[in-house]
Amino acid sequence: MxxxxxxxxxxxxxxxxxxxxxxxxxxxALAQWSPVWVVVxxxxxxxxxxxxxxxxxxxxLHVIVLPENRGKGAAxxxxxxxxxxxxxxxxxxxxxxxxxxxxxxxxxxAASQRLPGHMVxxxxxxxxxxxxxxxxxxxxxxxxxxxxxxxxGIGDSLYGFRVYPIAPLIRIMRRNRFMRRFDFDPEAVVRLxxxxxxxxxxxxxxxxxxxxxxxxxxxxxxxxxxxLTWMHTRLFLGFVVRLPLLxxxxxx
Length: 252
Description:
It contains eight helices and seven strands, in the order βαβαβαβαβαβααβα.
């Protein structure tokens, strides 16, 4: 664990029924950074109790338990709201199931500290076992996100390993009743671009674990793609309204 805890940047891990890798994931994050906050989003698999027990052993770990499942975006909003009240300015979000590279936390945090007005976005590097449907399907969302921002430079709209400036993200989410579930990651980057927060992309590996390796997926193809389609419909309408301003920004 790092010898000194940061007072500006924290790791924020939203977690819902994450499977057996959650404790290893949190320990890996703690080995690279402090503090680490976990928001347990109404989990029913006993992981909340295990994480609270771990927090009793690790002073750099803070666990927030929500009484019911609200969705990833809602869990992130709860976490960053409490973080802002505690004086933090930036949050690195990562999944709780071991897919994201904890060893890159210091590099992402350093990039954020160097350019605090930017959001630092992980650009996924897939291994050979990555599901082709997931890899190819995200290209559609990425294409729409880049169109909706006039190609401001979003390397990947869906990869949740990223550092957000907390203040503008809270403002955007509190003005918007969406962005509370699976639609959080892509809508956050588009709306932050609209607000003038520039993206900085850094390559980062992602690994999809099979069920026999402890992998857990809450992705539902029809449900979540319907949610993304509705999200991009809303964002495109917002893009049309903002188009003159976006053109001016791109020119100057």
